[in-house]
Structure formats: C-alpha cells, structure tokens
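Aim 2, interim progress: modelling of the WQD-bound target.
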Amino acid sequence: METQETIIVTGAAGYIGSHTLIELLQEQGYKVLAIDNYSNSSAQTYQRIKQITLATFEIKELDLCDYIALQKETNHLSTIHAIIHFAAYKSVPESVKNPLAYYHNNINSLNNVLRLCEERQIKQFIFSSSCSVYGNTHQLPVTEQTPVQKAESPYGHTKQIGEEMVAAFANANPWFSAVVLRYFNPVGAHHSGLIGELPLNRPNNLVPIITQTALGKNQLTVFGNDYSTRDGSCIRDYIHVSDIAKAHLLAIHYLSKQRHKTAVSLFNLGTGHGVSVLEAINAFEKVSGQKLTYTIGPRRLGDVEAIYANNTWAQHELGWVPKNTIEDMMRSAWKWQQTLESE
Ligand code: WQD
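Predicted structure of the complex, ligand included:
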C-alpha cells in the first residue's frame, strides 16, 4: 500500500474503534482519518491513543448520517485505501426501547459510507457485525455457515440488514470487496490501562458490571443458574478487545493481498471457547484478588443459553490467533476500572 493512502476509521473514538486505531498506528505505513460524533465516546480518548502510539492522525467530528458533511470532510484526501466502519449504536436493551433511533442511525450511516465508497471508488471495506445475527441458535459452535436467524432485537436486526447492504453493494460493484467481522462478546481493555470502554451510560454487559461491583458502584445479579449448562449459568465467548482490533489489521492485509475468494468474506471473531457467567466471575476474583458479592436472579429476557464461535476460518484465512485468556481479559478490565477511578 502507498504510504500516502488513507484508511478512514468511523467510530474511531469508540470502544473497538479506539483499540483498532492503536493497532493501525503501530503498524507503519497507515495514515488514518478518525471520524466520530462522540455520541457514545469522548475526544479525550484520542489523546490517550497518541500517548500510547506516539503517532499522529487526522481527526474529524461529524455525524455520518449527514452525507454532505462526510463528503466535505473527506474531500481533501487524494486516495482512500479503505474504510473500517465501526460507528453504530450498540445497546441491545436501548434498541428495544427506541428502535427507530437504531434503524435511523445504523442504517443511514452505513448507507452514507457505502455511498462514499461508490463516489470515491474506495475498494476495501470492513464492517463491524455481531454474533447477534445468529439469534437463538442451537448449532454449537457457530460457524460462518450457521444460518442467520430472526434477530432478537432491533440492534441485531440493524447488523443483519447491514451485512445484506454490504453484500448487495459488493455484488453490484465488482471493484469493491469487503470483510464482515462478527464479534462475539468483546471485553477487556488495552494492556496500558489508558483506554477501555467508557461508562457513559449505565452498563448492561457483564464485565463492566463485575468491575463496578468490585468497587461497590454496582450490584451484580447472575441472570439465571438453571440453564442446561455445566454450572447452570449462561455460556458466552468472551474475546479481548485488542485481539478483535488486531483482526481488523489482518483483514486489511487480506483484502490488499487479494487473497479473498469472494467479494464479501465473513469471519467469526471469538476464542472458540465458551465461558460461563460463574466462570467469568471466578476468573475476575482470581486475577483481582477481590471477592465479589453477587446474587442469583431470574433469567434475563432474550438471553440465549449458550453461544460460542468456531473461529477456524478466521485462523486459516486471516492468520488470526486470539492471544488473551479470560484471566487476561479480566485483568485488563480491572486495570481500566482503576484508571477510571483515579480520574
Ligand atoms: C453476558 C452474560 C448474561 C449482566 C451482548 C449483545 C451482543 C454483543 C455483546 C454487540 C449473559 C450475563 C450479564 C449481568 C449477568 N454486543 N449477565 N448479569 O447479552 O451475551 O451480548 O453484548 O454486538 O450482541 O447481545 O452480553 O455482557 O450483556 O451478557 O448474569 O448483570 O452475562 O445473562 O449470559 P450478551 P452481556
């Protein structure tokens, strides 16, 4: 790739975007334009990324639903190598309460970045999808061939529609190719402890609730211990956010080397191992030395009993090997929680 070519990262100040920005900047030769509207993130994260990488990059604040603004703020770039599109709303319960906001934001922003690909002939595209596209599947582990099921939430539905939009666009434009990454349960934080997921809204996800509970700032309830699993609690495939971030870099290489066999390549990003809620709690207690107080509550509506990935295809095609264990994930999440406390 020409060094003067730019990669546009949307949602670059967000949880996975920020960790991916670090990986891109640490790899020489990538010039980055970071786009975000800070609807669920903070521009301060960029200062931390600069501190970690000692690299510079261009920053634009804009709402991707505004195509004119997107055009204007990218007009100065002579060549755009790729777009990595993270920007989206991501809360499952919020999407159930406010579905139109999710359809409006997630679909329109994707439509506009694809429109920019068309106008500027941007040939490579990476789309953030989710294991939620598999819905309530009983085929475990989940491979990329496991059928997509009716989504459990408007959020999941926007990811399904998004995947179809990318596929339809690739189908209509033979010069364009895309990688769709289906994240399982991204957790943890950068090992520096400088960046992680910002708790701008009250968390719904297990790991931030665990780290907050350890500090007495939240109360953990295990949602159900009567599932047909080894200890009765739900099983998920937790994956370290930095391992997820690295997959994006490999996806760029994959598209650049034209090793892809189809216009749209799909990959599951999970460790391949299921971890139960109680095992996750134990891992946290082990690495933090904190004893967690929690209660067992009823099942949470919409939860699937167990889901974990088969990641062989990502290993084989991308050369992606997730490195972090559940203990590493918990250790980094706990370190990040300490950083948040010291601010
Ligand atoms: C994990 C496990 C809960 C909180 C969601 C989205 C998914 C993806 C990842 C974006 C479950 C249990 C949780 C608590 C608990 N996001 N739990 N007590 O629901 O697997 O996945 O985030 O793409 O699409 O649906 O993640 O972290 O909420 O829950 O017992 O207070 O922890 O029941 O088994 P989930 P989660």
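The chain is about 40% helix and 15% strand. Residues 222 and 296 are 5 Å apart (CA to CA).
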